[in-house]
Amino acid sequence: MDTILIKELEVWYRVGVPDLERAEPQRLLIDIGIEHPFDAAASGDDLEQTVDYSAVCRQLVSFGEGRSWRLLETLSVEIAETLIRNYRIRAVTLEIRKFILPETRYVGVRIRREAAAGSGEAR
Q1: For residue 80, is it within any domain?
Q2: Straight-line distance from the first to the last Cα atom of the chain, in angstroms, rounded to the nearest whole number
Q3: Tens-digit pLDDT profile for residues 25-36
Q4: Domain membership flag for residue 64
Q5: Three-class DSSP category at 119
């Protein structure tokens, strides 16, 4: 499958189990793999036939405004469902990393979600 890659998109979201951790936005890095066939876009050199990765990045940079999550797992599922719904993609893989534990380089989650056949909704 053809894949659009977005590596290390820097966002600032409020995420963490303790209230104190969610008190201020923290830096997260997101890797995104968007599965979408390139044939139609490539044959006509047409942005409308592919996924506008600039729009995806803009949406995710502002995705956390006024919101918070306790779990990275919840955040990752919400992002995947939003991307599938808004950009008509077949599947998305996400990896979200946060830098909260001093003993580690980072902690994170990785998920893959597919659109339900013919619906544009995640499954």
Answers
A1: yes
A2: 18
A3: 999 999 999 999
A4: yes
A5: coil
